[in-house]
Each structure stands twice: as C-alpha cells, then as structure tokens.
Amino acid sequence: MSLTDIIQKAKAAEDPGAIARAIPYANFIGIDAHLDSGAVVCTLTSSDAIIGNPVLPAIHGGVIGAFLEHAALMLLMWELAPGQLPKTVNVSIDYLRSGKLEETFARGSVTRQGRRVVNVRVEAWQGDPSMPIAVAHGHFLISD
Amino acid sequence: MAKLDPSASHNPIASDLQAAQKLADSIPHGHELGIEVEAIAPGRAQFILPFHPRLIGNPDSGTLHGGVITTLIDTASGCAVFSALPNLIPIATLDLRIDYLKPATPQKPLRADARCYKLTRYVGFTRAFAYHDDPQDPIANSVGTFMVGSSNAVFGVDDLTVERSS
C-alpha cells in the first residue's frame, strides 16, 4: 500500500497511529500517535534502545530530534489535502531539558502555510506540558 | 579559544580511534544503530552508519528517515566537541539545525563529517555534513552548539560503560 493510501485509510479510521506504524523508522524508535480533541499527538515510548546517555540516563538527542521532525510530518500528513505529501527541507531543534526515560509527547502547529512550503513548530514534553524538553521548527515542501 | 593541540591534551579520545569507538559504543542508541568511527582528530570526527531496512522513513521510496541523519550528525558533532576538549567532561546538545539537501540513496551506508570549529569555556560550535561516498555531494548540512561541562564530572575512557543490546 502506498503512503497516500495508508494516510487515507488512517484518516477514515480516525487513527493517526496507523501512519506511524506503517513507517519502519517510526516503529523502530517507538513512535505512535492518537487524536486529542481532534489534534494529532505523537508519543515516544521509552526503551533501552533509544538511550543516548546511560549515566544520567537520558534519551539520545538525535532520537528526540527525530521524534520532533516526525511529529511535524505526522501533523502535515494528517492535515494536507489528499495526495499531498510533506518533505523536510530543514529542521532546527532547541534542547531545553534532558529527556528522562519515560513516555514523551509531541504536538505540532502550522505557523504559516504557503503554496509550496509550510512552516511548522513542534514541542515535546514529558509529565508536564508546560515544561517542554525540546522544541523545533522546520520548513516542509509540499509535493503533489 | 582552547588550542586544539593533541600533544597538550589529556583527552584520551583526541586522536585515538579505538578510544573514540569505545566512547561511541557507550551510547546505547549509537550502538543499536551500528554507528562506527571512521576517523578522529582533535576537533574532528567522521562516523559511518550502515543501512538497515528499519531506518526507512518513506515506505514508497525506501529512503532513510531524516531523523536517522539527525542522530548520526548529533553523534558525530558531539564527538567532534569531545575530541576538541583538553579533558573528557560531559557535554549536552543545545541546538542543532539540519538542512536536507537531497534524499539518501536506499541501501547505502551514510557518513557524517563533523568539526568543532570553535571551542569556548562553556560552548562548542560545530559544523557537520552527511554524505554516502563523495563529500562533495552532501545529503545534509548542519550547524550545532553544545554546552561544555554540563555537569562537573571529569571521566576517563575506562569509565565508559559499554552497553551491549542483543
């Protein structure tokens, strides 16, 4: 099944997690997604395989960056018109706190949508949404 | 700026490939991905990541997920800062910006070449790029900053815990 078909099926079932589960890398690092009051919220399950610093211990910064980028892509795959797919142009990640070995959440919002390019902001948090562990913004090209 | 002089360094990984690999292996996620150090010098680190189907981001084209490239670049950039330090002290990524210049080619290993081009008392500044075989044909370009001395510990390479996941 093509990615476009996967997205359409997930939308019909109101299950954004079905998109995350169809993408090998998202599956590998433990990303899932659900709807919260109609908004896509991504989750990252903690596991030994995603540890970056075993002494603290903390989640690998690269995985947190990947999670934020994927949350932005999930938002766009959910909200773009059928058949349109996002491609990452760039992403800029600010690390605010170390990621503890617990469940992490991320939610994105579109800052500006142009004809070809969308600017998206994403925040990731653990227990308290008002204490983000990382934020990112990026540009995504819309292909059709 | 701290001098990037290996002879004046007490840093065990500054130009020792095996010690740098030991450092890389102490990062469980890096080990899980099979990241290897190809070259190390004070303020410079070159890493390689083997392709694996579980790293695919686009099931239509079979290309790598951008997040894998972020992880390789973050790891190589952090190691470039480590190798620039006079002693091994903890560091933490402050920020990282990645430009994706073109999609990675499926099945090919990915390399990252990172430099810490400026080191101050508290901050390391990095540039890095990712490519397959030809450094002149990059897949991603990046700049980053790292907090140096994010905790007070000083450690040696023998202190590194090597976590093996099966």
In angstroms, what separates the terminal alpha carbons of chain B?
42 Å
CATH fold-type name of chain B: Thiol Ester Dehydrase, Chain A
CATH 4th-level superfamily of chain A: Hotdog Thioesterase
Sheet with most strands of chain A: 6 strands, antiparallel
Whole-angstrom Rg of chain B: 15 Å
Strand order of the largest sheet of chain B: 1-2-6-7-8-5
CATH-defined fold name of chain A:
Thiol Ester Dehydrase, Chain A
Report the β-strand fraction of chain A as a percent range: 35-45%
**Number of helix segments of chain B?**
3
Uncertain spans of chain A: none
Which architecture of chain B per CATH?
A: Roll
CATH class of chain A: Alpha Beta
> How far apart lie the N and C ends of chain A?
17 Å
Would you count the extended β strands of chain B for me?
8
List keywords for this structure.
heterodimer, A: 144 residues, alpha+beta, Thiol Ester Dehydrase, Chain A, 6-stranded antiparallel β-sheet, two-stranded antiparallel sheet, 4 helices, B: 166 residues, two-stranded antiparallel ribbon, 8 strands, globular, disordered C terminus
